[in-house]
Amino acid sequence: MIDETLLEVRRYDGPGFQPLIFFNAWRVAIMNFTEELLPANLHNVERHPQTDEVFVLLRGQATLFLGEGADRLERLYAQPMEAGVIYNVKPQTWHTIVMSRDASVLIVENADTGPHNSEFCDLLPEQHQFILQHA
């Protein structure tokens, strides 16, 4: 076994979001399917005013939903993800993700990203319908 001063090896097979590696100002996490990510269960989007957030689909299927709007979500887009492709969600971009039950996504973001420095916006019925149609 290689000493952790040379190599950190992390794995996560549980449901939902789990940060695994921290270094200075950033972290690497895995997000696996959870019931909260079913299209019918999505009720809001989030954004991070001061940081990018990188998503990489590792397996399964996933769609990023991205939105424009200053104070609230005004326009919504669907971006189906391809495995191994890097998707960098820019600061101030409303977003959420829908995943298949076998999906896993790698996430890289600022280590202190959380509810205290993120913003949330409830989906309007027509926006929720858009997600249901494009998931």
Layout: helices, strands, pairs:
Layout: E1 16-23, E2 26-32, E3 44-47, E4 53-59, E5 62-68, E6 75-80, E7 86-89, E8 94-99, E9 104-110, E10 119-122, H1 125-134
Antiparallel strand pairs: 1-2, 2-9, 3-10, 4-7, 4-9, 5-6, 5-8
End-to-end Cα distance, whole Å, is 42 Å
Q: How much of the residues is beta strand, in percent?
A: 35-45%
Catalogue the unreliable spans.
none
What is the string of helix and strand elements? EEEEEEEEEEH
Regarding quaternary structure, how should these chains be classified? single chain
Q: State the strand order across the main sheet.
A: 1-2-9-4-7
CATH C-level name: Mainly Beta
Mean pLDDT score, rounded? 96
User: Helicity level, as a percent range?
Assistant: under 10%
Give a count of the beta strands, DSSP E runs of length 2 or more: 10
| Structural class assignment | mainly beta
CATH topology: Jelly Rolls
Main sheet makeup: 5 strands, antiparallel
CATH architecture: Sandwich
What spatial form do the alpha-carbon principal axes imply? globular
In CATH terms, the superfamily is Jelly Rolls
Compute the number of helices: 1
